[in-house]
Amino acid sequence: xxxxxxxxxxxxxxxxxxxxxxxxxxxxxxxxxxxxxxxxxxxxxxxxxxxxxxxxxxxxxxxxxxxxxxxxxxxxxxxxxxxxxxxxxxxxxxxxxxxxxxxxxxxxxxxxxxxxxxxxxxxxxxxxxxxxxxxxxxxxxxxxxxxxxxxxxxxxxxxxxxxxxxxxxxxxxxxxxxxxxxxxxxxxxxxxxxxxxxxxxxxxxxxxxxxxxxxxxxxxxxxxxxxxxxxxxxxxxxxxxxxxxxxxxxxxxxxxxxxxxxxxx
Length: 265
What we know:
CATH architecture: 3-Layer(aba) Sandwich
CATH class: Alpha Beta
């Protein structure tokens, strides 16, 4: 079942989970989680690549922030891709692609959570993913000033999680390399690369290729795991980019970070 959700800014999106749509709106539109902390502007007519687009919330945000941008949004899960396509249908500058991005062009099986689509991934683990969301909810509760609201949220944690990770599907997806796809689509530069792929981020980065690396100006990537974070920082450093690591308050005590990388020249 799909739902129509009106967002606080008046936009209407279709989604599989209303709470998920509300979360994505807050994270992207209100908290600006993918906006680099240095605040430097993008160039005129930027090229933006959105890897792990889900229902298109970041594409909608980017289209508002940079109306003249060319935006390419990748989402591998067919059910979610249909929602993405519908949500950006009115935007002529957004291209939606039903593909995952990785280091090898292949077909691969995605673990898909219909009740919590944004946690779906190639290496997803229901128990670990459930615990991550549980930690997030507790951190949100701890940040509330109202003690009564805090207690209610903690008390309702398991109710919120109920059923979210019980239904699991295995979905065959096409995986493409970013460098090969950029050539095919005529992308000669990437001014902003956003990556949110639930633990598959190193594979995305390893599919960039030596010719494309110098043409990437800015990257914002959600990284899960300290080992992945260190490896990603090394990759960016080797390719001449300066990195900054942030961790939203809601994720303290977890191994989830947002890594920003910017080309020095």
